[in-house]
Design a protein that fits this description.
173 residues; single chain; mainly alpha; globular
């Protein structure tokens, strides 16, 4: 499989997450009062956790997720794109781009990650899946696989923040 597909996942992820690193924590701090008011059904604990994420913790968490994405890219390259881990990471990447677009729609404006999602995340995912399909190595994706992929992505994100809190000494809520 072409390394543009496999290592391209890591490159596309890096471009996308650079946007999140630059804008994420500051955007959350600036918009937290408005978000709390607009979404009162969200637990106060969630808002406190979001409020407590600083730039340092966020950058370390992004690095931890990057290690997982890099491992997926290597697995994809070594397997000629056949790796279930690589394909799940690719699918999760694309779906998480759609989540960013849904977040932007929910707040009716920009959210960190929503600029590169339609420009990088979704197009790269569709292109890479097409290349895998043409090569005859794309695994079928069912709705339950998509749900599982989003759950794994959420779990990786939470684990990355737990690691980041440990590394940076940020208190855990």
């Amino acid at each position: 499989m072409n390394s543009l597909v496999t290592y391209g996942l890591l490159a596309a992820w890096a471009l996308h997450d650079a946007e999140e690193v630059v804008f994420g924590p500051r955007w959350v701090r600036e918009h937290l009062p408005e978000l709390r008011e607009r979404f009162p059904e969200v637990s106060e604990r969630v808002w406190r956790v979001m409020e407590g994420v600083d730039e340092r913790e966020f950058a370390v968490a992004v690095g931890a997720v990057g290690a997982v994405v890099a491992a997926a890219a290597v697995a994809g390259h070594r397997s000629g794109g056949r790796s279930a881990f690589f394909q799940a990471a690719l699918n999760g990447f694309g779906l998480h781009g759609l989540v960013h677009l849904a977040q932007a729609a929910a707040v009716r404006g920009y959210t960190p990650g929503s600029a590169t999602s339609p420009l990088v995340v979704v197009p790269f995912t569709l292109w890479a899946r097409g290349r895998l399909r043409r090569a005859g190595v794309l695994r079928p994706t069912r709705a339950k696989d998509a749900v599982a992929g989003l759950a794994v992505a959420a779990g990786v994100t939470l684990a990355a923040h737990a690691v980041a809190r440990k590394v940076t000494g940020t208190p855990t809520f």
